[in-house]
């Protein structure tokens, strides 16, 4: 997530004054936006040295940690909102991380590249793996361990006792609510424990 409009749309999902944990926070831009516009506090978790440095430069609290190690360092319900934006597809144990998300936070917000977006479908029909703005890597050098769709996440959420409160797509800085599985490059879900 790096586009300002996408960040602003996501920020609107976070209640004013929330305590936030941003998993895979990147350069800390969203946490800084939440701090400056919504009065939120919290932490980012990031592995990349350069991105951790960027967070520090922005004045964002950051913990350098590999998310595949889990969230055991955080107490139950320590946060109001846990964010996982463009992170889930890079984790080895997605299901465990979703369960941990609702353990350490009341609300979870996740986004991931939507593999069912129509340009991706066309690429696959042509016999090629898609390379798009949201999926910018060739199949042989991608950091993505898996790909998913809106329908895939909804099934995973139900299976793990999660209630989806809101879902929509993001495309070119706009929320896509009509046919998001087909029309949006990024899937976004807000959820809680059922």
UniProtKB/TrEMBL annotation:
Organism: Methylibium petroleiphilum (strain ATCC BAA-1232 / LMG 22953 / PM1)
Protein's name according to its UniProt entry: Methionine biosynthesis protein MetW
Highest taxon in the source lineage: Bacteria
Lineage: Bacteria, Pseudomonadati, Pseudomonadota, Betaproteobacteria, Burkholderiales
InterPro entries: Methionine_synth_MetW, SAM-dependent_MTases_sf
Gene3D superfamilies cross-referenced by the UniProt entry: Vaccinia Virus protein VP39
Pfam families: MetW
Transmembrane segments: none
